Amino acid sequence: MSYCVNPNSQRIRQTPTYKGSCMLEELKEEEIVNKVGGRFKLSTLIQKRLLQLQRGSRPLAETALKDNLKIVLQEILQDKIFLDQSNNVRTISDLRAPGEGMELDFGD
Fold first, then answer.
1. Counting C-beta atoms within 10 Å of the first and last residue's C-beta, which end of the chain has fewer, N or C?
2. Under 8 Å CB-to-CB from 36, ≥6 apart: which residues?
3. Residue 40 has pLDDT above 50, yes or no
4. Percent of the chain with pLDDT over 70
């Protein structure tokens, strides 16, 4: 197993790639690719969510990570974000209107 050193001087499990840069292990797993619906959708979701974070959006994943790419990967793995049919980043909370919960019909 290879380790690379991130800017915070922490060893993290990564695979060295061309010219000594590192590739995150999560990106090599088919689980994250399948969860999003393919490599193209994964790269689109990552790029768009990174832009949102850089513009001040708060992270949705509970993590102490400072690296925005790792935060985005955690958000995807924790099912916090996804792409809608128009390739816009959506969150699970977007699916429910504020104040709405699950309705139960007891057939009064």
1. C
2. 42, 45, 76, 82, 83
3. yes
4. 65
Helix axes 39-54, 68-77, angle to 10 degrees: 130
Number of domains observed in the structure of the chain: 1
State both tokens at 99. 């104040």
Residues 14 and 25 sit within 8 Å (Cβ to Cβ): yes
Instruction: Compute the distance between CA of residue 11 and CA of residue 48 in angstroms, rounded to an integer.
Output: 27
What pLDDT, in 10s, does the model give residues 57-85? Answer: 999 988 788 899 999 999 999 999 999 99
Instruction: Determine whether 71 is exposed, middle or buried from the number of CB atoms within 10 Å of its CB (0-12, 13-18, 19+).
Output: buried
Whether the model pTM is above 0.70: no
Residue 59 lies in a domain: yes
20 is a domain residue: yes
The closest alpha carbon to 37, from 3, 81, 5, 98, belongs to: 81
In the numeric block, the tokens 């090599």 are attached to: 28
